[in-house]
Amino acid sequence: MNIITNFLDKNKYSRPGTKRSKTTKIAWHYVGNARSSAIANRNYFNNAPKHKTSASSHYIIGLNGEIIYCVPEGEIAYTTNSANSYSIGIEMCHPDSSGKFNTLTYNAAVELGVDLARRYKLNPLTDFIRHYDVTKKCCPKYWVDNKNAWEKFKKDVNSKLKGNTTQGSSTTRFKNGDYTGKKARVTADVLNVRYDRGTNYKVIAKLKKGDIVKLNYCLNEWISIEGYKGNKGLGYVHTDYLEIM
Ligand SMILES: [Zn+2]
Q1: Which of 4, 66, 102, 114 has the fewest CB atoms within 10 Å around its CB?
Q2: What interface predicted TM-score (ipTM) does this complex get?
Q3: What's the whole-number average pLDDT of the chain?
C-alpha cells in the first residue's frame, strides 16, 4: 500500500483539528471531478480558506492507486455530514463521469479498507457505508447506481481481511510497531531500500535474496532497517519481501 502522508494545514473549513472519540464506520466517496488527481483534490481541500467551502476527507485514493493521507484519523474531516464524528472518510478518484473506479484505485481501496477494518475491529459488510447511506447524496455515484458493485467491494475487503488473519497462514504478517533487536531475511530476488516509507522515495541501496537486515519500526507495511543513510539515519523496505527470523 502506497500511503503518502500530506496533512492539510489546520483551518476551520477543512481541518478544524477537532478530536474524534470513536470510529464505528468507514465512509466511501467519489471525488465527482472526473480525471482529477489525488494531489489536486488534496490541494483543493487545503485551499478551503480561499474558496470558503467546507470539504475534506481523511484519505484520497488516486488514479494510480496512490493514497494521500491528508487529515489525521483522530481528527474530524468534513466528508460525511452527520457521520463525521464517528467515521473515517475516504474519497476516490475516477477516470470518467460514470464514477466507475479503475483497477488501481479499486485495489488500493480494498487494501486500505482491510487495514482500517483490522485496526478499528470493524466488519466491512456492516460498518462500511456510502455517503449515500447518510444523506441520499448520489455518492459514490457508481456504487449508488450499481448496488451489486458496492456489495462486491465490501465482500472483497471482507474476504481479504479474513484471508490475512487466518490462523496458520504461511507468512507472518508484520504489524505496526517496534521491531528493534529483531532480524529478518530478504525473500525477494532484489529488494530496494528506500529513503523513506513509499515507492515514491528514492532507492538508496539494493538487497538480495537471503540478506539479513536489522529491523527498527514498522508502519503500514513499510519497515525501517538499520545501517542506511535514509531519513532518520535508516533505510526503508516493504515488509512483503521479508521473513522474520
Ligand atoms: Zn461523498
Answers
A1: 102
A2: 0.99
A3: 93
